[in-house]
Each structure stands twice: as C-alpha cells, then as structure tokens.
C-alpha cells in the first residue's frame, strides 16, 4: 500500500494517462509491455469520467480511478483535499489547494504538462483549461492523435525538459498519451478501422517509447513514483455503442498501475 506522505517531497512524480485505453486491451498486452507491466499486472478500476475532459478534472482534483470491487473500505486514496470534514487515512496525502497540481507546486514541485489529445491543444479557451493547471504546459501538432509517431515526439520533448531540470528540483510531470485514442488503425498495417487489435498494437508502440522516458527519469538519480492509467475506454460496437462519453463497461473499466521506477 502506497504511503503518499513518504512520496510527496522526496520523489519525482510521473503521471501518465493512456488516453482511451480499454481494460481488456491492456490486459491482452501485459506480456508485451515490459515498461508499463514489468513489475506487475494491470488493476481493474472504474474511471470517474467517461471522456477526457471530465476524467482529467477529476484526476487533478485528486479523484483517481477507483478499484472495480464492491468493498469501498479497501481503497485508500492517494490524494485528498484538506478540511472536508471527512475522515482520511494516514497514508493519504492532503492538499490545501483547489487541485493536486497546485498542491504539489506548493510543496516545491515544478509542474509540467505534455499534452496529447484535443483537450490539451491550447488552441481555444476550452483546450487551455486542463493545461492551465500546470506551471508549464506543452503541445505540438506532432503530439496529437493524427501523428503515428506521437509518443516518440512527446517523449523526446520530455527528455529535453528533464535535461534542463536540476536533479534537486522535484518534478511532477503529467503526460497525456494520444496514440491509443482514435484513429489508431494505422498501427495495424492494412487495417481501415480502429479496433481492440489496433489499440493493442498502439499500446505496444507506446510501451516501447515509454522505456526511454523511464530510463531518463531513473538517470536523474531520484526515486520516481509513477502512476499509469487510462482516463476512459471506448466502445467498438459492443451492444451497439461506438466511442466514449457514454456509460458502458468498455468505457468505465480502465487499467491502472502505480509503481516506483
Ligand atoms: Zn480521453
């Protein structure tokens, strides 16, 4: 069980949302994802939001995906707002700010967002809302869903930022991976439609690129707490549903992992 009060202040924190990754696709690829699953399997969780915008506001408010079990007492939250009047666990880190990003900044963290999908593009006021949680935020065309090498470009950008961050500067880096979001059919040669298969192929590609990011974080010499999870899944025709921003188990069930790099 993670004691966040032994993490915050001493560890760099890397939060990765694997945008739109379905739980079943993630499980199918566990053996092929040595970077994300090298230290254990995915946990099945429920997301607090059915699409990117809703889910990420919840995450930044400290509401991460919750275990997909009926026993709520088992779940110890990593983050919780101070002074709500609710009883909290000693392992839960309490923040006295509107969100965890500002809370970590108040603890001396440099907060950095590397955007991926449309809600992080900063192209209009709505798409600036999520990046605005962070002190520094970045988005490029090459980070977006239409670029088949988006994760490579995102990781390259992250590596440059790491190079320019002093080792004693605590870092909270958030990365929204866009590659698994549609369109992802181009990860399967000849495929014309997105599917679980093409999500799986996209995930294998993403895992390969994340290896360089994990290596660079480790090279800083500080312990790193990594959170990797999906913001929501997506339906590929199950029960007639297509896409997300709807209530279906292909959307609510998400893969979740936390580990020390
Ligand atoms: Zn999303």
Describe this structure in words.
Helix content is 28%, strand content 20%. By secondary structure, the chain is an alpha/beta fold. The strands form 3 sheets. Strands 3-2-12-9-1-8-6-7 form an 8-stranded mixed sheet, sandwiched between helices. Strands 4-5 form a two-stranded parallel sheet. The chain contains 8 helices and 12 strands. β6, α5 (126-129) and β7 form a beta-alpha-beta unit. The chain has a single domain (4-67, 111-260), classed as Alkaline Phosphatase, subunit A. It is globular.
- How many runs of DSSP E, i.e. beta strands? 12
Helix content: 25-40%
Mean pLDDT across every amino acid position: 97
Distance between the termini: 16 Å
Question: How many helical elements?
Answer: 8
Strand content: 15-25%
Determine the CATH topology: Alkaline Phosphatase, subunit A
Shape: globular
Question: Which strand order spans the largest sheet, edge to edge or round the barrel?
Answer: 3-2-12-9-1-8-6-7
Quick recap:
With 261 residues, this protein is α/β, with parallel strands linked by helices.
Topology of helices and strands:
Blueprint: E1 12-18, H1 23-28, H2 34-37, E2 43-46, H3 52-60, E3 66-67, E4 79-81, E5 93-95, H4 100-106, E6 110-114, H5 126-129, E7 136-138, H6 150-163, E8 171-177, H7 196-219, E9 224-229, E10 235-236, E11 242-243, H8 249-252, E12 253-260
Parallel strand pairs: 1-8, 1-9, 4-5, 6-7, 6-8
Antiparallel strand pairs: 2-3, 2-12, 9-12, 10-11
Protein name: Metalloenzyme domain-containing protein
Domain Sulfatase N-terminal: 98-255
Pfam families: Sulfatase (PF00884)
């Amino acid at each position: 069980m993670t004691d966040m009060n032994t993490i915050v202040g001493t560890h760099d924190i890397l939060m990765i949302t694997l945008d739109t990754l379905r739980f079943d696709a993630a499980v199918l690829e566990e053996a092929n994802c040595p970077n994300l699953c090298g230290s254990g399997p995915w946990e099945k969780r429920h997301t607090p939001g059915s699409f990117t915008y809703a889910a990420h506001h919840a995450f930044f408010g400290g509401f991460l995906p919750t275990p997909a079990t009926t026993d709520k007492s088992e779940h110890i939250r990593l983050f919780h707002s101070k002074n709500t009047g609710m009883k909290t666990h000693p392992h839960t880190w309490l923040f006295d700010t509107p969100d965890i990003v500002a809370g970590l900044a108040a603890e001396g963290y440099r907060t950095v967002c590397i955007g991926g999908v449309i809600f992080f593009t900063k192209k209009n006021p709505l798409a600036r809302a999520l990046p605005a949680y962070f002190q520094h935020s970045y988005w490029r065309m090459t980070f977006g869903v239409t670029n088949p090498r988006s994760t490579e470009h995102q990781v390259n950008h992250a590596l440059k930022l790491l190079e320019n961050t002093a080792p004693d500067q605590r870092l909270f880096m958030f990365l929204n991976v866009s590659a698994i979001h549609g369109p992802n059919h181009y990860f399967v040669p000849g495929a014309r439609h997105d599917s679980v298969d093409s999500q799986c192929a996209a995930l294998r590609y993403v895992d390969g690129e994340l290896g360089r990011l994990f290596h660079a974080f480790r090279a800083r010499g500080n312990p790193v707490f990594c959170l990797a999870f999906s913001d929501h899944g997506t339906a590929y025709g199950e029960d007639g549903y297509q896409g997300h921003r709807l209530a279906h188990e292909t959307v609510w069930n998400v893969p979740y992992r936390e580990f020390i790099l």
